[in-house]
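#data-curation
PF: Archiving a pair of folding outputs for the training set. Convention for this channel: one message per protein, sequence first, structure tokens after, nothing in between. First:
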Amino acid sequence: MARGKERNDPASPAAISIIGPGMQVAGDCTTEGTIRIEGRVVGSVWAGKAVVIGKNGVLHGDLHTQDAVIAGEVVGTLLVASRLEIQGSARIEGEIQARRVQLEEGALLNGDVRMGEVVLDPPPESGPSQSAEERGGRATSRRTPSRTEGRSEPSPALF
């Protein structure tokens, strides 16, 4: 590394985490920055900055973020504090709460949409499972213990 240049801190809010094509994550994902989902996540996602779900990306769980762009599949609750863009290839089933929503022609949206102020709760602490009442929302996924968070292991039951 050249002298005088700062290293990129992977924990910085500018960091982008990627769940690539063919990758499966069973459990909750949390980042202060941005997460891009091109694979499959079964669990909730908390992103301090943004979430991008690509055309082949799948999220079965709740989403909590400032901004989101959805081109793939989401089954769960979307809580977006600022801007939600739903592209024409998106398939969403569940509740949406967002300050602003852009919906392209061709998108499939089945569920409730509420627009206005959205207050995001912080991600839950690592630990045992929490019920929907404890998280303040409806359950679409089961919280896994922290020792499995961030790991991706193939599971035939997910596909």
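PF: Second:
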Amino acid sequence: MGLKIDLFKITKKVKNKKLANLFLDNALKLVIPFNMGMGMKIKSVKPDETQIQSLPVYRRKNHVGTAHAISQALLIEYTAGLLIATKYSFENYRLILTNLAITYHKPGKGILTGTCHVPDTWPDLKEGEMFIDMTTKVHNEKNELVSEGKTTWQLKSWKNTKTKKN
């Protein structure tokens, strides 16, 4: 299912960045229902970098009270996916995560921040499809590296998919 409106075009028109991020946060929770209640909050969206915060909410906790490995995986995926979506519109492309590899360095406590930067070069779209490798680093409030993940994304033009955009 594709998104019929370009959320980034709307947010670019909002002068107040906090208000724009709040709008985008809430809109993306509707588009990606799994993220609802996971404590994800957009910190910044720039053309070359995105930052997402993971707040210490109940659904994020594991059995020892720190950030569950899956919640960190979600933070890594969400941060990278959002950066890709700023370059390639949901309206034109289907974004699918095809690979996720994570290294966990220490327990995630408190507010965690995922940061993803654009790759050195964006790949070329060949025959309506491409793969993009992204790296996201997760830091705690002391700026210590908690985890880092490498994601691979398939971008495909909606006209080249079996499931057509609504």
